[in-house]
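Retro notes (design track)

What went well: tokenization of the new backbones is finally stable.
What didn't: we kept losing track of which sequence belonged to which structure.
Fix going forward: every design gets posted as structure first, then sequence, in one message. First example under the new rule, 273 residues:
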């Protein structure tokens, strides 16, 4: 289930662990923001392993999606390859959300996952998705949503995010659409690109005002409240369709209000704890 895997709170074959996908992403440490960019660049990696505090996670009994930093077109970029697999790469932050909060990046998709369908659970896979977690207060959610979120947090033992917005490059859905994930309405998806690029291997640049997109996705639920950004996650999966996907991401830029506070503890392997 494409990045739905990252934020899904109910997932076929995972049962209560559906929420664990979100929890695993948030198990990664917070990072000391380097203004103006709150995200550590992939190009800072010494080798193929994404640099701390980028943190890989998957679900039990799943083949892991591969996230490797490679040289492509003369630049160090993130290669994301899903092969009947599931996985996500997350970067925690603490960033207020306002009119100046902007997420930008470049990406390309070389192979879409055959059979992927964002509207169904059996087809909820994809080659390229970039998600943002928000720390919306759970006490403002409807009772049923609070209950489901509470179960996910209890099972995982982690602070599963209450809202997630994902940007998708899909193989067939129309550009500009906003969809609710087939597994959970805690995750909304915006289709930024649709189908193959005009020229194979073309990189496409994106720049999103997170507050505007957040209001479009969760404005009715938020009723004027403005949560902060809790994490940014790259995801790709092909475990439902048993297919294959291949995509690339440039360094990501998350720019927002000053005063971000956090910490990270990198290990000898280059990953963070």
């Amino acid at each position: 289930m494409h990045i739905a895997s990252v934020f899904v709170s109910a997932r076929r074959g995972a049962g209560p662990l559906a929420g664990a996908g979100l929890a695993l992403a948030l198990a990664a440490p917070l990072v000391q923001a380097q203004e103006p960019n709150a995200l550590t660049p992939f190009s800072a990696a010494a080798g193929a392993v994404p640099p701390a505090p980028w943190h890989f996670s998957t679900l039990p009994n799943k083949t892991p999606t591969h996230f490797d930093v490679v040289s492509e077109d003369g630049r160090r970029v993130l290669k994301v390859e899903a092969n009947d697999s599931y996985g996500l790469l997350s970067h925690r932050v603490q960033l207020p959300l306002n009119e100046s909060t902007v997420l930008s990046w470049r990406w390309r998709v070389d192979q879409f996952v055959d059979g992927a369908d964002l509207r169904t659970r059996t087809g909820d896979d994809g080659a390229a998705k970039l998600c943002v977690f928000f720390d919306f207060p759970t006490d403002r959610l409807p009772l049923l949503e609070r209950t489901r979120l509470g179960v996910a947090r209890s099972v995982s033992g982690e602070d599963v995010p209450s809202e997630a917005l994902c940007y998708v490059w899909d193989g067939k859905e129309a550009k500009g659409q906003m969809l609710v994930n087939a597994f959970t309405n805690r995750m909304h998806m915006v289709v930024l690109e649709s189908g193959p690029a005009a020229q194979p291997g073309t990189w496409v640049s994106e720049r999103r005002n997170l507050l505007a997109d957040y209001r479009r996705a969760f404005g009715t639920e938020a009723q004027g409240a403005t949560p902060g950004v809790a994490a940014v996650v790259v995801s790709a999966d092909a475990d439902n369709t048993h297919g294959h996907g291949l995509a690339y991401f440039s360094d990501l830029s998350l720019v927002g209000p000053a005063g971000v506070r956090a910490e990270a503890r990198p290990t000898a392997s280059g990953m963070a704890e």
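Added context from the reviewer: The radius of gyration is 17 Å.
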